Amino acid sequence: MAFTRSSKPSSLLLFALLSVVISSFLAGHASAQGKTGQVTVFWGRHKDEGSLREACDSGKYSMVIMSFLDVYGAGNKYNLDISGHPTAGMNAAIKRCQFLGKK
């Protein structure tokens, strides 16, 4: 007794696969339409990255996160490690960033 294979299951599988691929493509395109154009940067770890004021004045970032807290929690006093960056003028730089609307 010979069995014949129907091409129907493979056609259905191909259709399902194409549907998933096309749906993924369209969903990706739709989500790209909702891009905010906002970029966040972590600032403070390396002196080569420039000053805080330079980061804010560059216009590249909508949010500048001052990092890195290297001591925190368990009742310890927080410590901001801004390796290599001078602390003089930091208050003015923060106020400048706020004035420019940086978060």
Automatic annotation (TrEMBL):
<dbReference type="InterPro" id="IPR017853">
    <property type="entry name" value="GH"/>
</dbReference>
<keyword id="KW-0732">Signal</keyword>
<dbReference type="GO" id="GO:0005576">
    <property type="term" value="C:extracellular region"/>
</dbReference>
<protein>
    <recommendedName>
        <fullName>GH18 domain-containing protein</fullName>
    </recommendedName>
</protein>
<dbReference type="GO" id="GO:0005975">
    <property type="term" value="P:carbohydrate metabolic process"/>
</dbReference>
<dbReference type="InterPro" id="IPR050542">
    <property type="entry name" value="Glycosyl_Hydrlase18_Chitinase"/>
</dbReference>
<dbReference type="GO" id="GO:0004568">
    <property type="term" value="F:chitinase activity"/>
</dbReference>
<feature type="signal peptide">
    <location>
        <begin position="1"/>
        <end position="32"/>
    </location>
</feature>
<feature type="domain" description="GH18">
    <location>
        <begin position="37"/>
        <end position="103"/>
    </location>
</feature>
<dbReference type="InterPro" id="IPR001223">
    <property type="entry name" value="Glyco_hydro18_cat"/>
</dbReference>
